[in-house]
Amino acid sequence: MSNKVELLAPGGDVEAIKAAIVAGANAVYCGLDTFNARNRASNLSFDDLNGILRLAHKFECEVFLTLNIVILEHEIKSFIKLLNQLVNTGIDGIIIQDLGVFNLVKKHFPTLDIHASTQLTTHNEGQIAFLDKVGASRVNLSRELNLEEVKTLTSFAHDRNVLTEVFVHGSLCIAFSGQCYSSSVSVGNSGNRGRCSQACRDEYEPTATGNKFPLNLKDNSAYFDLPELVDAGVDSLKIEGRIKGAHYVYTVVDSWRKQINKFVETGQLLDDDTNLYKVFNRDFTNLFLKGDLTKSMFIDNPRDNSVNHAVEKSNAISVVQIQEVKESLYEDKNELGAELEEKIKYLSIDKIALTLTFSGKLGEPLTLVVSTKDNTFEVQSSLLLTAADKSTLDAAALEKRFKSFNDANHTVEQFDFTNLDAEVSLPFKDLTALKNQAAFLLNNSVEIIPPVEVSPLKKHPKLNEQPTLSLLISDEKDLNLCDVTDADIYFKLPESFKKGCNKFIDILNNNPRLIPWFPAVLIGKDYIEAVRILEEVKPERIVTNNTGVAYKAYEMNIDWIAGPFLNTTNSYALLTMQEELNCSGAFISNEINRLQIRSIARPENFKLLYSIYHPILMMTSRQCFFQQTVGCKKPSIEDGCMLKCQKATTITNVKGVSFAVDKQKGGYPSIYNDEQFLNLNVIEDLSDLFDEFFIDLTDIGSGSKESLDKVQLIKHFESIMNGDEHAQSQLNEMVTVSTNAQYTQGL
Length: 747
Prior knowledge:
Elements: E1 6-11, H1 14-23, E2 27-31, H2 46-58, E3 62-67, H3 76-86, E4 93-96, H4 99-108, E5 114-116, H5 125-134, E6 136-140, H6 147-159, E7 163-170, H7 182-187, E8 219-221, H8 226-231, E9 236-239, H9 246-266, E10 284-285, H10 287-290, H11 306-313, H12 319-344, E11 352-360, E12 365-371, E13 376-384, E14 386-387, H13 395-401, E15 410-420, E16 424-425, H14 428-442, E17 468-473, E18 488-492, H15 503-510, E19 514-518, H16 525-537, E20 541-544, H17 547-555, E21 559-562, H18 571-581, E22 585-587, H19 594-598, E23 607-620, H20 639-644, E24 648-652, E25 658-662, E26 670-678, H21 681-686, E27 692-696, H22 710-721, H23 725-734, E28 738-739, H24 741-745
Parallel strand pairs: 1-2, 1-9, 2-3, 3-4, 4-5, 5-6, 6-7, 7-9, 8-10, 11-15, 17-18, 17-27, 18-19, 19-20, 20-21, 21-22, 22-23, 23-27, 26-28
Antiparallel strand pairs: 7-8, 11-12, 12-13, 14-16, 23-26, 24-25, 25-26
Helix pairs in contact: 1-2, 1-9, 4-18, 5-17, 9-12, 11-12, 16-17, 22-23
């Protein structure tokens, strides 16, 4: 494995990447103007990317490209076209979220190195095994993990020759990455598509604790945790900030580079982090890493804290003192900016200018000399020039044939035909060979990989002609529902378990009709307990929203279905799970619309499922939502909080929209939309596509809402499935606050 710690810097635009390079980054990650999870960054054109690659590699800095969004079926063709371009660029790695992309790259573009994005929410050993199986060479570990968890997972990853990277500086999401739908639900801009509107930074009506920004975390900084991260074996220290400017990137990367160098050279740390406070920050916390989740992680202001910090540090009180501090801070910022400007002013990503000199006489080979500012080489045709008959090898013909040398890396500045005889000819095949030889040498003697054509996937038939109904419960008190329906009944397991407790093993063993449903997040001992349930119960079938449990089911030859929180939006994601891990079915994401769903191709002998009724999850967090809302007497989150706490409240934004804040026993704090998801249109639209329609009858996310009669709900849904139009109006009378906006708007 790697014996050095990589400093990985963000690059939202060309200037920021130049700043990262001169500040000492070992690698940068950046995005093109398509298929990346930071739409608000300036991002790069394809020509920019090639220029950045030339520049970065000159400074021994690697470049990773972010392609970390879920992909829609109609985008596959364009995505493959992009991959065909990338394989010939020298890109050092691609960062991806979509499981379908793993399939495409592993099969058709094996020279591309795959990094698993933070959007995959990697937090347990099984997930690392899953990602290794589908082709990842490194994984970005969840930001919520503590140092001991990071160390354990890194050791496991290294045993599989997988690298790990950890975010060490920059903005913190309060939600688990990849599991936040707040922006998608509220304004139709999905975080899984790079369009997060940062609802967690929004202002809300003052809570009982007096907070207007109850979801706003301080920024992350592990600046003084470097020894522990090195001890944990982490391969890459990643700085967040692709929507930040060059000045920010330079200052933060420079500070971290100096800290790393100091530690490597002396074993000691710098004790001055002043410069980190001179650029945008919301104050800093390292308490996720420390595993000490207190309310001090929050700050009731989402804006830049640099001025406030400078004023507080200087103990300025009077208006004059505060103004002096501000002026001093601005002078420091300007000095850092001037320092950066001086360092990057001669860095260029301009294309390499070529001079193509053609020479040759009748009876001699055609000679091509290719000249750049730094290099010159010569190639010759294998055949000799002959007298022209119909096709003359003149200036116009050669310029037309070699105009493709104006590409992402080169621009033909001059053609020289001075020493080329007139009225000569060369067979087209030999001229093409000459051109290919020159292109090979221009590409650093690396063969150009020809474009791959990927045929559309075949749509296979459903397993059953008529779709069936399934439902989810999470409480023993709902076991009576087994007696009122023939539907498949899933039992939702919690996100946290009491160690060694057999409660859920007994429930499942005593009620063999129940099908285990595993949540999206299972960390540490909770993942171990989830695996123990699999091993003790040995169910025939499960649904899992966690790829770690999926991997264990694959190992145990247990039939598994991918849950709705695996964010499945295209056919190739289905294929990845089926071919690599023997998956037998999947829920299609509720974020996509009818047309986007319709185009998905089902693999052979594979079930497709869709949730038609459920509470709309907006976000789930390892932090506590109650510290900043209703208050909590505990100074920090304890193990018992997960198992015992079942608080509920609401928060209301400045537009007057309220959201349920819900904490179930054994669950993470979560926020839900004020509306239920209810989509009856899909039954009429897509019954020919789906094998199973699903309803969620847990009480999760209901907040203070009155619980509905679940037996009656089941009867109404069953009647609707059987074509009873009257049942639909009866159901709408029961479920009074609902939406199917996501099914309409899509991604």
